[in-house]
Each structure stands twice: as C-alpha cells, then as structure tokens.
C-alpha cells in the first residue's frame, strides 16, 4: 500500500477545517488539524506533514509568524506552505511569499483549483530535495550537494555515516512495515539530537534504507555520537518480541533451512573531518567513510569511530 501524503490544516474556524478535511480525504490524503499557530508548530515537529494549509489570521501565533518560524527551522523548512485566507489582501499575499510560503489561495476556493495547487506544491517539494518518502529527509543528491558546497567554501566540518547492524535480518523476520518503523525511529533520534546540539548549520540526510548522513560541527560530533548510541540502544528493544529481546537475538532460517541467529540491532557511526586533512570531493569523503565502516563492523555492539588521521603533506 502506498504511503499517504500528510496534510496539516491550520485554521481557528472549525467549519473551515471540516470542509478542507472532507475534500482532502476524498483525494486520499492523510489529514490532521490544528486550531492555532502554537498547536500547529507542535504538530509539525511531531507529525512532519508533507504540506501545510495555513490560515493567516489566528490567535496566539498567526500564520505569518508560524511560517517564519518553520522556514527558519533547518529540518522543517522544506515543508511547502499554502496560505489560505478569507481576506483578499495583496499585502498578506506578498508578505507570506516573502517569508517563504509556496502558494496562496482564498478561502472561497474552487475545490478543483485547490486540488491542483496541492498536487503541484507536493510535486515541487519532492523534486526539489529528492526527499525520502518515509523520513522526509533529503536524499543522495542533496547530501552530495551539501558536501560539495562545504568543500568549495573551505568550511571545516565533520561528517558521520550512520547505519544499523543486523537490520536486514530484522527486516526479513519482522517484515518491511516493522523495518520502516525502526528507520523512522533512527530519523527521529538523529533530528532531535542534532537540533538540541545547538549547531544551526547541521545537516541530516537519508542515504536510503537504514543508512543516514550527518554533517555537523567537529567540536560537537563526538557528543552527538555518544547520545545517538545511548538513545538508540535504549529504544530499540521495544521493536522486538519479548522472547527475542530476552534471548538477545532472532531465530530464523537461511535458504537451505539452516538455523540462523540475528543479534538485536545495534548502530554504527563512522566519522571523518577535514580538521587535519583536506577533502577534495564527496567521492573522497565516501571512500574514507566506507573504510571506517568496515572497521566498525568488526566490533560488537553499538560503536562510533572518528578518523584521526592527518594529511602527510
């Protein structure tokens, strides 16, 4: 079953929310609601909608201010926003677009017009960042661009390759839906910890499957790695059945019918930086990280390894 795209309706008028919900659900979108800006901001952080339909005039936190806050958040700025207002105000339209909103429509909309505006904004968002549909994180092209830009700008940074140990065995035994839940768990852990690290320039990408990439300040990366391991090891147990959790492994069979043991998943974090060496391309970075990853895979449990080598010239 395809993943339904999620739309958040933000409006203080319950009749407007109900009308929009009925229309959007008839088009097979997953819909949630918020009655004011503060409620909406909290829902965005938790639910990560694919698009927001946002009223301009609301109590507590109006739509323009909410838009500004979201567009300044590095992990939510990619969510397209369509302002929807009862006032035909050119000033509101211009202000909303200046703040980064993708579109603007009157509350006296034609349902077909709304449908195509929503579809267009969602399509543009997917094309723009190549986001992974499961985690909403930027994909490979965006990761490569981020690395290239930092190298060209001669910025000092650390890059961490994150992947799970024994994920394939878990996926084979528990199924893809359970595997997706684990991938979403990892994405939440990474985003929450990097956000709270205070590194405003940090970047998180989803390479694919159970592989992620973090680009962050070299001074904070070790602390982030330690906290990722602590959070992951503390959370992964609930994704296993009690018997498997107590044994410490999954019992399964290979293609020949021979019994196989898959240990409880752990997490490996491969890190390199350009503090003591120069990076010339994203391909060089990938090669270094792959080498570190192979070394980590020989270790038991969750681990991180930071490359300390220096250029010899």
Topology (elements, then pairings):
Elements: E1 6-10, H1 14-26, E2 30-34, H2 37-47, E3 51-55, H3 63-72, E4 81-85, H4 90-98, E5 103-106, H5 111-129, H6 140-152, E6 158-165, H7 167-174, H8 176-196, E7 203-208, E8 211-216, H9 221-235, H10 242-247, E9 249-253, E10 259-263, E11 266-273, H11 282-296, E12 303-306
Parallel strand pairs: 1-2, 1-3, 3-4, 4-5, 11-12
Antiparallel strand pairs: 6-8, 6-11, 7-8, 9-10
Helix pairs in contact: 2-3, 7-8, 8-9
How would you portray this structure in words?
By secondary structure, this protein is an alpha/beta fold. It has 2 domains: 6-129, Rossmann fold, CATH 3.40.50; 140-306, Reverse transcriptase/Diguanylate cyclase domain (Alpha-Beta Plaits), CATH 3.30.70.270. It contains 11 helices and 12 strands. It has helices at residues 14-26, 37-47, 63-72, 90-98, 111-129, 140-152, 167-174, 176-196, 221-235, 242-247, 282-296, and strands at residues 6-10, 30-34, 51-55, 81-85, 103-106, 158-165, 203-208, 211-216, 249-253, 259-263, 266-273, 303-306. The strands form 3 sheets. A 5-stranded parallel β-sheet has the order 2-1-3-4-5, sandwiched between helices. The chain has a 5-stranded mixed β-sheet with strand order 7-8-6-11-12, with helices on both faces. α7 (167-174) packs across α8 (176-196) and α8 runs antiparallel to α9. The radius of gyration is 22 Å and the shape is globular.
